[in-house]
Amino acid sequence: MKCGKIVPTVLLLAGITMMGYGVIRGEAAVVLGKAIKLCLECVGIG
């Protein structure tokens, strides 16, 4: 039973840690910029 709760908890903590590291490095701004460019290209504005 414990193994069923440990694995998802470890994966959740690993994901949160990786997202935090990406935010610290400024990757969120890069991803947002690419998303905006992609959306504008799909609409035909950019």
UniProtKB/TrEMBL annotation:
<protein>
    <submittedName>
        <fullName>Thioredoxin</fullName>
    </submittedName>
</protein>
<dbReference type="InterPro" id="IPR047708">
    <property type="entry name" value="CD1871A-like"/>
</dbReference>
